[in-house]
Structures are given as C-alpha cells and as structure tokens.
Design brief:
Blueprint: H1 2-44, E1 77-79, E2 90-91, E3 106-108, H2 109-129, E4 134-138, H3 143-156, E5 178-183, H4 199-207, E6 213-217, H5 222-225, E7 230-236, H6 239-247, H7 252-268, H8 273-276
Parallel strand pairs: 2-4
Antiparallel strand pairs: 1-3, 4-5, 5-7, 6-7
Length: 288
Amino acid sequence: MKRATIWILILLLAAACAGAGAAEGFVEEEEFVLEEMEDFDDLRWSFPIPLEDMNPEYIILANKHYLLDPDYVPEDLVLVPNKPKEGGIWHQDAGQDLGGKLKGHHMRAEAAQALCEMNQVMRAMKETDGFQNMYLKSGFRSYGKQKTMYNNRLKKNKGKDDGWVSMPGASDHQTGLGCDVVPNNWKDRGMNDKMMKEKECQWMAAHCQEYGFIIRYPEEKKDITEINTEPWHLRYVGIPVATYIMENGLCLEEFQQQLQAAIADYLDKGGDPEKVAAYIQEPTDKGE
C-alpha cells in the first residue's frame, strides 16, 4: 500500500507540473498574440511621423477656419528670459500683463527654451557672420488683446481686413507657441516682407526647424494661410514636425490636412480611436 501510494503521488505531481507548463505555454502564446496585435496596429499608422513624436498641443492650428476659444490660455506660459548674456533674448516693447502676475513677453515653456537656445547660436554668429542682435517683439497674446488689435487695424484700414492682423481666435500668438522675432534694425520699424532680405531672417528660415520652429507664414503659401508673408513669425511645433514641414515646403495648414487624412485612414483600417483622439482637429466654420 505504501509503494502504491507513493506512485499515485508521483503521478499526481507529474500531472500538476504538466498542467502548469501548459498554463505557462498558454500565457506565453497569449502575450505573443498581444504583441502581434500591437505591431499590427502600428502598421495601420502610415504617416511619416510616429504619433509619439508629435505633441498634439504643439501642432494645434489657429486661423479664421479653426478658431480658438476666447478663454483659451495655455497653462505653462512662462516669461521668456530677456537677458541674452544669461541665455535669454532681448525683448522689444513691454509685452502683455497677465492679470498683474507676469509682465513681458510670454510663451509656452518648451517653446521659450527653444527660442533662447536658437538666439544664443545667433549671438555667437555676430563676430563670424556679422549678425545683429535679435529682439522678441511679441509672444503670447490673449483673445482680448487680439480683439483690440484687430479692431484697431480695421478702424485704421476703413473696415478692410488686409491680412496683417488676425481676427480674435485666429491668432497663432494665442497658442503661446508663436512669436515675432526681428533683427535690431527692424525693432522700431513697421514690419513688412522686405525683412526677408535680412540675413538673420534668411538664417532662421534655413535653420529654425533645428530648434523645433517653422516659418508660420511663408511667402509662397499666402493663398493657403490667408496671411501676408511674415519672415519674422516663428511657430514652435517640436523638432520632428518642424523638420518634416520645412523639408517638404509645407505650411501648418497643409501639414494638418495631411495629418487628418492619415488619421482617417488609420481609423478606416481599424486603428484604436483613443490613440488619435487628441490629434483630431475639426474646423469651427464647418465649411460655411
């Protein structure tokens, strides 16, 4: 009886081990299937830039067809440092007082840091290339501030929108990612497209993407942006997106058009809606 009992115990133990091995095998197979599903989901995304390389907040589009809410104010606005010798950039004008808390020109934190880094490179080129000092003429502007500027422009221009000042809600400045940067000899002049002749502006057009910026309103895209040429207006979108836009000769409107088409294609292929929800932006005028 004792020997039989031992054999029974041995058989039960072997069966238990076999069962455990089978269970482990099933788990491994399930994990493998899940990994395959994730890889397949990645294959559904056909856009040249991976989703994880784009910050949806940094590529937001603001124009007369994609209006920002009147109360839209980025949460991470910071005062752009205005001491170039300490890593900042000279400020032009007093900027905007944000509820009495911050005075001067403001941008979203990452954009402000990138602008200062670019300015330090340009400052280093003063001796080698004769670059002038650069000035931050304008950063974040609230909806209310933009409304005042727009109405003043209309009044001055006999009610005609001449494309120099965006209507409230349509301003790139309200995103906290757009900024006007001018060379020293333009800081006290009215800005126009002749500034494109300045070597500093030409350098920015050639190198701004290295710091995550694009030229927001290129000369050849006026029919799309519906804004006059502004060689001084930089817009932060992050390095991967900026590189793609500048190397492919796009404006932000064209980039967003391509991105929204890629999102639609991804969803048609059964992609996960939650992965792309934050990137979807629809026009506010609905084609009216």
